[in-house]
# Entry
Amino acid sequence: MEPLEFHSGKVCPLNRANVDTDQIIPKQFLKRIERTGFGQFLFFHWRFNDDGTERSDFVLNDPNYKDATILVAGDNFGCGSSREHAPWALADYGFKVIIAPDFADIFYNNALKNGILVIKMDEQQVKSWMHKAEKGLTLDVDLKQQIIQASDGTTTSFDITPYQREKLINGWDDIALTLLKEEKIASYESAN
# Structure
């Protein structure tokens, strides 16, 4: 997992509540065994028509949001099944930060475990950023300071547990955390 201490990116507004994991990555694309390659199927039924052409009315197909790396979404983002493929698809597409008023618990933890910074933010602030993103908005997210600075100069703080903050800053997934104890593990194994 790549360390994430500071991220500056263009905002893509997804003004929808209750976006579930089957909308994020539909079940027919869960056959892959690796963690990569899912980005092309992100929000598949919203992005594409039945014939495979892009739908012009979906935000990710708008050229103004090309290369956006920060997704600002509605309440209860990531609800539904517990599939870890949802954060894989978001990360593979290029999103590094997701901001919403609230997240489904399992999605929230899966996203953090996969290197995506998920930030719970006041609903009014989320709506304000969605509106500003329609005209072009960049956010600077400083995980060390736990602040977000918008391209209009406004600054907002956010909360994250110290444990999750440290994992993201250092790029530690669960395996990396285990390997931090490699000497103790080896010592234990050689003693038994």
